[in-house]
Amino acid sequence: MRILLTIGALVLLAAFGMRIYYGMVPPPESTLERPLKEIVPDQLAGWRTHTVPMDQSPEAAARIENFLNFDDAIFRVYERGDTMIGLYIAYWTPGKTSYRWAGVHTPDTCWVLAGWKRTDRQYAVPLSTPTTTLKPADFGTYVKDGITQHVFFWHLVGGEPYTYEQEGLHNIFGALQDVREFGLNLRHEQFFIRLSSNRQLEDLRALSGFDEILKSLEDVGLALEAPNLPREELQTAAN
Questions:
Q1: Is residue 214 included in any domain, yes or no?
Q2: Which residues contact 189 (CB under 8 A, 6 or more apart)?
Q3: DSSP E strands: which ranges in 36-132?
Q4: How many domains are there within the chain?
Q5: pTM to 2 decimals?
Q6: Which residues pair with 192 in a beta bridge?
Q7: Phi and psi, residue 188, nearest 5°
């Protein structure tokens, strides 16, 4: 009983300390300068482009979308012949939601809950074209009803990729990892970016317009900055 009382007192003390911290320290400024619909290309030469309502996304199919409370979001699909590329971005202003809750966007949670089966999973995967190099992505392959989707995705916290490296559904201990990684600084802005396609990356790189899609992601914080590396070395490292 004494141990339980001690733990309870420590939890209350930590909660009180966080309230004081949040009351004294203002959240960081937002870095999103334009609405997402103006950042993501709405036309690509040779492609059919349409914006999909958010309630038709796999996230909504998993019945978690209404709880995510984002400040801006967009889901655009690009089609050319039998090639499809989907680009989904959600944004939360600093302090809007917990890192763990925004992290529910990972396909390992929402796609699996929507009936997809994960067949491959990788971490810190490089993604680049000859003119664009992005921060390393999480990657997974998901299958449903005979449809295969290769998915690159990022959860950016304060501009840096953040992953729970989960195996299966969302990590219920993620909140503890958040505190371990960030301490009391739990009010960074957040993006979740998902780039999915029925084609492998090698095929997409050969298509005109794909580089333009990737280039737009630099404006939401995915540009890989390595000022001490010449561009040639950076491209070699990314490939």
A1: yes
A2: 28, 30, 31, 32, 91, 92, 93, 94, 96, 158, 159
A3: 48-51, 72-80, 83-92, 117-128
A4: 1
A5: 0.80
A6: 90, 155
A7: -70, 155
